[in-house]
Amino acid sequence: PDFDAKSMNLVTKTYKERNNIRMPIVGASGSEYFNFKALTRGETKITFTYRRPWETPTTQDQTAVFTIYLQ
Q1: Using CA atoms, how far apart are residues 18 and 43, in angstroms rounded to an integer?
Q2: 70 has which bridge partners?
Q3: Would you say residue 23 has pLDDT above 90?
Q4: Taking residues 5-18, what's their average pLDDT?
């Protein structure tokens, strides 16, 4: 994720495979979880881009931008 490090810290990043997979499979689906800690109060944005980590970013990558309210 892309975020303002002055506003918040990335505390943990965890990947969890789908529960119904019997054995680990390369490329199998799963979910990634991010835990942040607020460093300031106010509003900031966080951007997530869906792509393979080893690929060069392109304009066709799926991107989601979220506004976060820190307290």
Answers
A1: 33
A2: 42
A3: no
A4: 91
| β-bridge pairing 8-17 and 42-50 | unpaired
Residue 18, pLDDT score:
76
Given the structure tokens 């689906």, which residue do they identify?
29
Residue 12 and residue 36 in contact, taking contact as beta carbons nearer than 8 Å = no
SS3 label, residue 41: coil
Q: Enter the tokens of residue 48.
A: 């997530």
Q: What is the DSSP letter of 5?
A: T
What are the DSSP E strand ranges found in the chain?
Answer: 2-3, 8-17, 30-38, 42-50, 62-70
- 């506003």: which residue's tokens? 7
